[in-house]
Design a protein that fits this description.
Blueprint (H helix, E strand, L loop, with lengths): L1 H11 L14 E4 L9 H16 L3 E4 L13 H12 L22 H14 L2 E4 L3 H13 L15 H9 L5 E4 L8 E3 L3 E3 L3 H4 L4 E3 L7 H11 L4 E5 L6 H11 L5 E5 L2 E3 L14 H6 L4 H10 L13 H7 L10 E3 L4 H14 L1 H19 L11 H11 L25 H5 L5 H14 L6 H13 L6 H13 L7 H22 L1
Parallel strand pairs: 1-2, 8-9, 10-11
Antiparallel strand pairs: 3-4, 4-7, 5-6
Helix pairs in contact: 1-4, 2-11, 2-12, 11-13, 14-15, 15-20, 17-18, 17-20, 18-20, 19-20
């Protein structure tokens, strides 16, 4: 037994402790299974771990839990880390970044789990089970027929060493099961308070090491949390009833457990479960549709608890400063995704107002314009930084997504119309007079241009014509400025285009 314990301790490194890392505080981990895309529920769990670590100068770890090889999706592990980076909550230690407590992928730690199961076998805390899948299936069917919860009957727990040796000599397949003991000790959950679950009364002894050499969740998480120096486990409330089982494992190893905190469920606004099948709760989908990561972080915390304040528009830095773990309640968080565009609008304002982030938006918008309108002979002048930046600043607060600015309503910004003087004359014979009046108005209003003032000025301008109605003046200007019959108000178009661009388009229409 002593040799097994020494081998186990030497398999990964030093005993549990804070170890080297970005901070001396708590060490927390996010342990997703790479079975698909990262979804909002996973993002929230990762976020609370990240915020807790950064609040207390700790370390946030990404550990890929890929022990169920049948469900692993190629590329999913890399995609999850990509999405954490995109969301602005990158791990300090991970498969990609490395660290002093790796490997950070459970399929690369199989020897450690085997050594751990050997320790439990030597101590008598675990045993080999030779029951066939057929027998286990019969047990399950019999339990269901009797309207009971299926559970293993612990048959192999009672095998003598001689019987075990005989079965091993026959080459029979086996798994390792952990002996559940009655009389579990209560534990204090950081969210749910004092808890305990007499798992031995309702469950059979669980498999901790499968026949293929891969561990189950229970063994892998206990072993990894110990050797990675995890001080706090913040995970979904679905694991609350398993915690007593995990504490029995810690006790069997003789290890001090971390502190546990179980996060309440994240549900739809009607209280229903978020559906992964709908495909609209995956981060890749939100990123593709133009949502900002800050908006997602804001809404999934706004609908929950754990913060001293609750208002829209909070930055990650504000979330960290306002977070208090004892403020997390046991109530489920109800997520209303219909509000997400408004969250996005607010955070887009923040980005536009930030000089550094605005420069990135300018380049992104330039690329969007080229992509959407590239085949319509976009004049390079409308792609100049100053023009694009002006559009962003003027449309700030009016758009929820950057892509709104390349929608058909705003196509006039990027595609200069080809409108002839003759076309404008079909609307009003006073086209030259109206053009001169607008040019004069733009010269006078160059310093300050607002939609409210422009609307007043355009009303006054119409009164200076001889016989053109106000609606026809608006129709003529809309056509000259955008080449379209519909869209935003003429005043809004003129403000967004700016005096220089308005004058250029009027001159071009009058001279063509």
């Amino acid at each position: 037994m002593a040799r097994a314990l020494r081998a186990l301790r030497g398999a990964v490194g030093p005993e549990r402790g804070p170890g080297p890392g970005p901070g001396p505080g708590p060490r927390v981990r996010f342990g997703p299974s790479p079975t698909g895309f990262l979804h909002l529920g996973g993002l929230r769990t990762a976020l609370y771990n990240y915020i807790f670590a950064k609040k207390h100068q700790g370390t946030f770890i990404l550990r890929v839990e890929d022990t169920d090889q049948n469900r692993v999706v190629p590329g999913a592990a890399e995609g999850i880390e990509d999405m954490l980076d995109w969301a602005g909550i990158p791990p300090d230690e991970s498969p990609r970044r490395g660290g002093s407590f790796g490997p950070y992928q459970q399929s690369h730690r199989l020897d450690l789990y085997r050594r751990a199961s050997d320790v439990l076998l030597e101590r008598g805390a675990a045993y080999r089970c030779f029951c066939t899948p057929q027998r286990l299936e019969l047990l399950k069917k019999e339990a269901l027929r009797s309207q009971q919860t299926p559970r293993y009957d612990n048959r192999c727990r009672h095998l003598t060493p001689t019987e075990v040796a005989e079965k091993l000599s026959q080459g029979l397949d086996w798994v390792v099961r952990f002996r559940l003991e009655k009389g579990v000790e209560p534990f204090r959950d950081l969210v749910y308070g004092w808890n305990k679950h007499e798992v031995a009364d309702v469950e059979g002894d669980p498999v901790i090491l499968k026949g293929d050499g891969f561990p189950t969740y229970h063994l892998a998480n206990v072993v990894d949390d110990h050797y990675m120096g995890i001080s706090h486990v913040l995970r979904g409330t679905e694991w609350l009833t398993s915690t007593s089982k995990h504490l029995l494992l810690y006790k069997a190893f003789g290890w001090d457990p971390p502190q546990f905190g179980h996060l309440p469920l994240l549900l739809n606004k009607d209280g229903g479960k978020l559906s992964k099948r709908q495909g609209d709760i995956f981060l890749e989908c939100f990123a593709r549709d133009g949502y900002l990561p800050e908006a997602l972080l804001d809404i999934i915390t706004n609908c929950g608890s754990g913060f001293t304040e609750k208002q829209m528009g909070r930055t990650l830095e504000e979330l960290i400063s306002q977070f208090e773990i004892d403020r997390i309640t046991t109530h489920s968080a109800l997520l209303d995704l219909e509000k997400l565009p408004e969250f996005n609008r607010i955070h887009l304002i923040h980005r536009i107002e930030n000089e550094e982030l605005r420069q990135k938006l300018i380049r992104e918008l330039q690329l969007l314009v080229e992509h959407v309108y590239g085949d319509q002979q976009v004049d390079q002048e409308v792609l100049e930084k100053e023009y694009v930046e002006r559009v962003l600043l003027l449309r700030k607060g009016h758009i929820s997504f950057l892509k709104n600015l390349v929608s058909s309503d705003y196509s006039y910004l990027w595609v200069r119309p080809s409108v002839s003087r003759e076309q404008l004359q079909t609307i009003s014979a006073e086209v030259d007079d109206i053009g001169k009046l607008v040019l004069g108005l733009m010269t006078r209003q160059a310093a300050v241009l607002t939609i409210e003032e422009l609307n007043k000025d355009l009303r006054s301008l119409q009164k200076q014509t001889k016989e053109t109605k106000y609606s026809n003046v608006m129709q003529l200007l809309r056509l000259a400025l955008s080449g379209q019959q519909h869209g935003p108000s003429v005043a809004e178009m003129m403000v967004t285009l700016g005096p220089k661009e308005v004058c250029g388009r009027i001159h071009k229409a009058l001279s063509s």
